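Hey L., structure's done. Input below.
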Amino acid sequence: MIEKSAHEMAAALQAGEITSVELVTAHLNQIERVDKEVHAFLYVDKEGALSQAADIDKRRSQGAKLGPLAGVPLALKDVMVQKGIPTTCGSKMLEGWRPPYDSTVVRKLKENDVVILGKTNMDEFAMGSSTENSAYGPTHNPWDLTRIPGGSGGGSSASLAAFEAPLAIGTDTGGSIRQPAAVTGTVGVKPTYGGVSRYGLIAFSSSLDQAGPCARTVLDAAYLHEAIGGYDPMDSTSINAPIPAVVAAAKNADVKGLKIGVIKELQGDGYQPGVLKRFNESLEILASLGAEIVEVSCKHFDYALAAYYLIAPSECSSNLARFDAMRYGIRTGEGSAEDVMKATREIGFGREVKRRIILGTYALSSGYYDAYYGSAQKVRTLISRDFAGAFEKADVLVSPTAPTTAFKIGEKANDPIAMYLNDIATIPTNLAGICGISVPSGLADEDNLPAGFQIMAPAMKDDRLYNVGSALEAALLSRWGKPILANAPLLGAR
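Output:
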């Protein structure tokens, strides 16, 4: 049962073929079996998950109205607060903290009767592309335990690929849902900025952060998207509009007559040949299904990486200023307030977080603000205009999700620029605030590891992602004869 999709699990629960307690127990057993090697979880809430599952089973037996995913388990990225459950953001700074409230995403999951198994590992404060920057050790890719599972949400993606959970929540600041999905052979969606509430999401870069669904199929991601999406008055950036009909779009896998724009700047040099081969095959499949393939140019995308690594560190410098031993976080050291603050931040923050705080503080400092942060915001506007122009020629835009498959743990640890380049194809979407999805496109020839196909759509047109993604997924499934994850080591699942 743990190898089934979330909607298949939900159907089995509704038919009485299995109880939620049995389903949750099966996943807890899988976590017990494999997570010593994978390290997807930072905290497993065994007692809470079983209690929630038992309550759902009781209410189901009484004929209560339940959500479409009622009784299905989920893994939660440790950047989302959950009342009474340890929330660390992958950092020593928050070690042992138990929030006094639920984030809006967690509240909606509970309202929809989704069972939360626990909190997943992540790059500290979501800063990274590999989940090697966690203060609690790296997560390993279930396809090859010597490789990264993507970042910063590698714990969530790895939990799906290791069959420890059928659903997960991630957050995407520069690609941290989509890039992990690509390298683990799973599905990851970055909704339109403001489409899912950020209330209770511990901020890294407030104008870029976006929570979203992670799953093993496009339809599963759609069901989870509808469960967590929608307007929230607690979030000033939340969009007061209905959730796009993403489940209906996922079920309507028809791309006939759709214009699909291939972004010229997001392929070529730096992209692994096997990744590009799978990408081009996917384009051929979509063309065979009746879509029209056109090439578009977004000339300012070449500056997206530089703009992002000025905007995101600047906002992180501001957001993380609160962790000063006086207001939030651990406290250590003696002497003056300045001495205590210095000692606490030295111990509490890891190397990558310190690097970004220093970079952001410099970019915001007097005399440099206009030259760096101000200029980066102008580039951001130009990138948004590039997208607007491209969407006049195409209904959706596509590219490889990540330039390569999963690299070895430690391979890029001492080369920040090489690490940052992993997000080169995903960052423009965050800068413009539009939506994107990564679906598996197959295994690269060089290493037999998963590659991802990225689909982007205009703001609040998230349903287009699911329409195209579902069509491609169905065609590839027909070609493969089985889900791509059936090719991965199941780490004791069978």
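Residues 370-391 form the longest helix (22 residues). The two ends are 10 Å apart (CA to CA).

-- N.
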